[in-house]
Specification:
Layout (H helix, E strand, L loop, with lengths): L2 H11 L13 E4 L3 E7 L9 E8 H4 L9 H22 L12 E2 L6 E2 L5 E3 L3 E8 L3 E2 L2 E2 L1 H17 L9 H20 L5 E6 L6 E3 L2 E4 L15 E6 L3 E9 L2 E6 L5 H10 L3 E2 L8 E3 L3 E4 L7 E4 L17 E3 L4 H15 L3 E5 L5 H4 L3 H6 L14 H8 L2 E5 L12 E6 L2 E4 L1 H10 L19 E2 L7 E2 L2 E2 L1 E5 L2 E4 L2 E4 L9 H16 L9 H15 L19 H9 L6 E2 L1
Parallel strand pairs: 15-22, 15-23, 18-21, 21-22
Antiparallel strand pairs: 1-2, 2-3, 3-7, 4-7, 5-16, 6-7, 8-9, 10-14, 10-17, 11-12, 13-14, 19-20, 23-24, 25-31, 26-27, 28-29, 29-30
Bound molecules: adenosine-5'-diphosphate (ADP) and magnesium ion.
Length: 572
Amino acid sequence: QNKDKLKKTLKNINGRGYKAYKQIQSNWYDFGYYKLGIPYVQGDPFASPSSILIRIDQQVTNFPAWFWENKIRRMAVTDFLTRLIERAIKKYSKGQRGSGKSGLIAITKTGQEVLERTSVEFNKDMIEARLSLGLPAAGRRVLGNEAYKMFFDELPKIINSTLYYDNINSSSLKKHVQVIEDQETLRGKLEEQGLVAFIANDSILPRQSGIDDRPLTGNKVVHFMSPPEYEVTFDLPHLGKIKGMGVKEGITLIVGGGYHGKSTLLNAIEKGVYNHIPGDGREYVVTREDAVKIRAEDGRRIEKVDISPFINNLPQGETTTDFCTENASGSTSQAANIIEALEIGTKLLLIDEDTCATNFMIRDSRMQRLVTKDKEPITPFIDKVKSLYTDYKVSTVIVVGGAGDYFDVADHVIMMDEYRPKDVTDLAHKIAIELPTQRKEESSDKFGRICRRVPDPDSINPKRGNKFKVKASSKDVIHFGRNNIELSNLEQLLNREQAKTIGYILVFALQKGIIDGQSSLGDILNKIFNILEKEGLKIISPFNYPDGDYVKPRPYEVGAALNRLRTLKVKR
Ligand code: ADP
Ligand code: MG
């Protein structure tokens, strides 16, 4: 339809009840260079805002073909355009006016990471941007003139300044895409070099604050510099040669005094599974994509996990080969977190002493003498970390400040000294010989079996009554049917949008019969992520139009969320 039709309708419904806005729903309006789609109109000014789509032919946008040549470039462009639109909205939208969400124009939020999102689609044929818009009202009366301004003044300005190649800063776009493509390439090269992570020289690891993920600034920032022993060089398609510290497969300890930067280094490695924007300071900090941060998480539920590699002979004969609890302890939760990550297929565990259960990590010789093995259900991680690598090729990077017993099992020891890493492997091994711990190893040399669980679809219910209820109000919790899935201990989950997307991925997997009562959790996640790879993330939308607010999570966080659903039942 012609845009004049929209103009006329808005005039006609001015001052009428809010429901009159429904007249503009489900239409495409031709604005000449672009088309505006309104697939969904909100029911009232306080409800979630209306959805709009903006579609432009690639012939009109004038983007060179280079930008859509491969998937990672398309993703990087999408990310860049989302950020541009975010800024243009701030500049050109008059913002809230009238009641509720009246007058607001919004696109999904972005942070330091570059993620696959549905906010913008970019391919060889077209660009489609997906925004939300609060149709304006005074009380519940349509403010037609304000709506007119939004559609015919503010939106055109936003679109004009962001979706036409000739109107945007093409060199910063190109830089963005190149930096992302380089990171992706770099991550892909880790395995062939026998590395689990790489931290480029000159990276900036510390963040502004615990609630601000931007890089720390000021003259106190110490830029990262690899010790010579660990320095490796990569050749990247755009940047060329880059040097930095390679973290090798096997068992690596990060030691050092309190406040010397151990956790900061590990946190950067954790987030290295994602790509970062230019200027983040961690653009060339990359980690194998299957790395999982492990921590204690007492209070969580556990559903039939075989934690027997770590825990046996519980009081009162409770079984640990299919261990269930509504309220895990520090050590049982940490054991379950490890086994569940292994079940999905991780080959790299990241552990920080700061967030561990001490009795899970270590039992020293004095304690071994006082509390004999037959009275202690826990086989500490120190006695399993080696067999994890020899049996399953699972590497571990552990931050330890206090437990020198780990020197015996470490392949590499890196010391953080005033934020500068040093190789102290030989020294640590020498000390281990000079000062034996006298503790007895508590495990045979086999790690043990890793369980394979089959989720029961009937135990996963996203409905409340007969209506779907899937919502995330923050990154910490998904409201899923009648249940809340608690995610605050998933340190590699980034934001509310990822949490929400996990909820919708679960709904999608249920509706498509992927969670079928036969397939293991690992197979289910493989199947889901293969579909998302092929069809794009927007496929999960349960509506008849794409939601622009999805952000792709990793399979590990999707699995972790399901494992934390309090109604989950599994077969073994
Ligand atoms: P640790 O885990 O060794 O106790 P942290 O990693 O928590 O230490 O770091 C302690 C403090 O030092 C944090 O406030 C962090 O932001 C800051 N910090 C870490 N690395 C650097 C660095 N390279 N330059 C400046 N400050 C840093
Ligand atoms: Mg710390």
